[in-house]
Amino acid sequence: MNRYLPVARQHFLAALASTSVVVKSICAAVILLYLLSFAVDTVYGLGVTPGYLFPPNFWIWTLVTHSLAEKHVWDVAVSLATVVVAGRLLEPLWGALELLIFFVVVNVSVGLLGAFAYFLTYVASFHLSYLFDVRIHGMLGFLGGVLVALKQTMGDSTVLKVPQVRMKVVPMLLLLLLAVLRLTTLIESNVLASYGFGVLSSWVYLRFYQRHSRGRGDMSDHFAFATFFPEILQPVVGLVANLVHSILVKVKVCRKTVKRYDVGAPSSITISLPGTDPQDAERRRSLMVPLGADRTAHSQLRALIRPWLPFSASAACFLHTPHLRVTGKSAESVLRLGSLVRGKAAVAFLRPRGSGKALCFFLLLFCLSSSPFSWSDPCTI
């Protein structure tokens, strides 16, 4: 374990060096307040206490400072990693100022929503512990916001290969994990509340209020609220979310999405509608490029194999089947593939005689099965 710490520290310092002064300042504040916590109770003075946030105390500053206060070294590590990841992946897209705005909006929202939720819990139970014993602090709320932002920008990226986990499902998977840990009393309720309200507030900000070159918010289909849930629940969640959005539009909390027409190009008219964001369209277009390359490679390989098969019923089935596979018993001409590259094929053909036909035939099957092509994908000639 000790031999990996210097390597991890080196990578962390290298990543931190390439970030802006905003990220460096936040990391320095987290470390400084953690060191100060050995002398004074920083969580009490800087964390959000629901009973002290509301009148007559008005500890308003805790809405800004609660995310910087940590009690344990592993919490400090999670906070620093979250801020550095945001600086490396989000800051190049947004800029340092927008990242700072996002940091402030998410943390202030987590403090307000968390305090209000505990106040409602006190009203329902009349236990003063929900007002004066709870401390909302730490960077878990901002962690939820960063994961939501990564879902928006790189949702189709693969986080784990076995089992396959994509970035778009990570926010809800972590929320489910924290909920299970809370049911087993392994974590406190403020941890789950901070992360949950961080996910919610960051999605609302990115969906409706964030300013960018295309206007405000992101109304694309892949970032709808229902996409946070499993596909079987998405229709129901989408219906409820649309109903809530309609109510918020009527009370003027959210703005109604309008059609945008771009007639700047003299040769065409670009229409931008809700759910057809240009960024979403570009993302889907990029996903179709590998599929088109695979189909082209399949067609080229069939064109190369066609002259070397005898004209028979089995050869015709081989050439025109929608799934590329060897079906005929006749192997008069054998294809030996030295290497297969997507879109290109380097092939060498041999004409064996006698008992070598069977060996070459099995060699052909091995080459086809071990090639990088997706042989199960249908394609037409």
Using brief descriptors, characterize the structure shown.
57% helix, mainly alpha, globular, 16 helices, 381 residues, 2 domains, Rhomboid-like fold, two-stranded antiparallel ribbon
Number of discrete helical segments: 16
**What is the strand tally?**
8
- CATH topology of the largest domain, by name, is Rhomboid-like fold
- CATH evolutionary superfamily of the largest domain: Rhomboid-like
Please give the domain count.
2
Low-confidence stretches: 265-270, 272-276, 310-355, 370-381
The largest pleated sheet is described as: 2 strands, antiparallel
The run of helices and strands is: HHHHHHHHHHEEHHEEHEEHHEEH
Class derived from helix and strand content: mainly alpha
Instruction: Specify the CATH architecture of the largest domain.
Output: Up-down Bundle
Distance between the termini: 56 Å
Keywords: Membrane, Transmembrane, Transmembrane helix
Protein name: Transmembrane protein 115
Subcellular location: Membrane
Pfam families: DUF1751
Summarize the structure.
The protein has about 375 residues and is mainly alpha-helical.
Explain how this protein is built.
The chain has 381 residues and is mainly alpha-helical. The chain has helices at 4-17, 21-36, 42-46, 50-53, 62-65, 73-89, 91-94, 96-125, 129-132, 140-154, 170-183, 189-209, 234-250, 278-305, 313-320, 356-370; strands at residues 158-160, 165-166, 211-212, 215-216, 260-262, 270-272, 334-341, 344-350. Strands 1-2 form a two-stranded antiparallel sheet. The radius of gyration is 29 Å and the shape is globular. The model is unreliable at 265-270, 272-276, 310-355 and 370-381 (pLDDT under 50).
